[in-house]
């Protein structure tokens, strides 16, 4: 039996490996820096940290949206609304009233 992996599956494997590696590396850095769970909870309870944890991903999302809008606008081909295609009855459907 021949099984082929699609490029989509391979890219997911790459993302999974990179994500796992970055989590392990981040944990090792925190361990070597001496960050304990109590210290991490203390840092997370501060208002500045909570605002940063909320605002940084939101700001990145807005920047990505602005980039995509600029990319479409600078390309000069803004997608137009296309009329839906007329539904054609397949040949095997029974005709009514005939």
Automatic annotation (TrEMBL):
Segments crossing the lipid bilayer: 50-70
Annotated signal sequence range: 1-40
Source superkingdom: Bacteria
Keyword match Transmembrane: yes
Protein keywords: Membrane, Signal, Transmembrane, Transmembrane helix
Record protein name field: Uncharacterized protein
Taxonomic lineage of the native organism: Bacteria, Pseudomonadati, Pseudomonadota, Alphaproteobacteria, Hyphomicrobiales
